[in-house]
Amino acid sequence: MPSSSKTKFSHLGPNFAPPHLGVFALNPASASPKLTPLTYSSLWRKLVCMKSELEELIARPKRYDNIDGTGEMLVGVTLLGFALAGWLEALLPENSSTWTRVAVIYASLALAVGLAYWVRRAIKRHFTWPRTGYAAWPRHGKPWWITSILVRLIALIIAIGLALLIRHASRQHPNTMGNLNWNLRPETWNPRVVLLIIISVTAYAIWISRKGGGHWWKWLVLLLMVLGVITLAFLVPADFGHWERPPVLFVALLWLGSGAGTLYSYVRHTKPAAPEIA
Amino acid sequence: MNEQLQAISALDRIIHEPGRLMIVALLSAVKDCDFLYLLHETGMQKGNLSSHLARLEAVGYVEIEKTFRGKIPRTLLRLTPDGRTAFARYRKSLKAVC
Predict the structure, then answer these.
(1) For residue B38, with 0-12 CB atoms within 10 Å meaning exposed, 13-18 middle and 19 or more buried, which class applies?
(2) What is the rounded CA–CA span in Å between residue A135 and residue B35?
(3) Residues of A with Cβ-Cβ distance to B35 under 8 angstroms
């Protein structure tokens, strides 16, 4: 081994062999020294054992889907649909049938999902595709109409479930449907609101850790979500009939705000690419 | 060690080149995409990306379709069934090596 090579690679230990002497080298990143083969065509540092890098590359298109914040907006608008369903349902006469309630909730959800899809498509078409390119996701052999029917079926099941829950809550607490007061004693906290807080905060935390795109301010949104829903837990007493309305609306607005922030940052940091030459 | 060397020699050299590996890995996760998407995700120069794509097209791993969106030309790219099979085989070989 030439003396210059010895000095150059001395920090990698005595067992390290520079690439021009063979195809194997010690993997410096490994905790236990292991021989790893080098690629012929790359720099000496580049190792052929790129399993994790490869998996990372394959997972990248999934993250790209939310590069413009449309994923967060989709969740936000869908949650707004739930909130709208709650408020619209409250406008119905008290003696309305369960099926009328189901129809109102289903219509709100369908409107929200349709709007979310349309907004997402419009943002992709006008902002994302001209700036950083178009990518379509594989359907894994499933025709589009199966997905469409599945979405409608899930919305119908949710609508029936919500309508039954609301009817049950209205019967149990007929006189406490609009009375929000500070509710500082933990024994009177609404357990369903506390559960909703935990679910929403966990869901958002998982989302930003996986698809956050490195935006530090999203952790502040998470903090705001925690503080906001804790405040709502103080406000919504255990016997409050429509317990889901305030936290769902709050969480929906935060998801929407987070998506709008991501879109703003995306538009600020990218510019439309020059069109291809035919 | 001999087995490891055999596994390395069995790797598909067309896919194994780092630039092309990046392209094939990205294409394997999508149904199709345009040239701009690959340009953005790989960080390559246009010429470099074009030459890699031409090589992949020549061996039948990638399908290149020239279309228009309105009056704007667009190059759509997708992995062919042969390309998907080759990439799956490459990943399997890589697992045997590491």
Answers:
(1) buried
(2) 10
(3) 133, 276
Cα angle for residues B32, B34, B40 (degrees, 5° grid): 115
Whether the predicted pLDDT of A33 surpasses 70 = no
Q: Which residues of chain B have pLDDT under 70?
A: 1-5, 7, 97-98
Q: Could you tell me the two tokens for A121?
A: 């498509």
pLDDT tens string A85-141? 877 877 777 777 778 888 888 888 888 888 888 999 999 999 999 999 998 887 666
Question: CA separation (Å) from B67 to A239, A272, B57?
Answer: 61, 19, 17
DSSP state letter for A125 = I
d(CA A101, CA A161): 11
Residues of chain B contacting residue A141, judged by C-beta atoms under 8 Å apart = none
Chain A residue with minimum CA distance to B33: A135
Does the structure's ipTM exceed the value 0.85?
A: no
Burial of residue A95 (number of CB atoms within 10 Å: 0-12, 13-18, 19+): exposed
**Interface of chain A against chain B, CB under 8 Å?**
23, 35-37, 39, 41-42, 46, 48-51, 54, 57-62, 64, 129, 132-139, 273, 275-278
Q: Are A243 and A95 in contact (CB under 8 A)?
A: no
**Residue A26: in which H helix or E strand, if any?**
strand A24-26
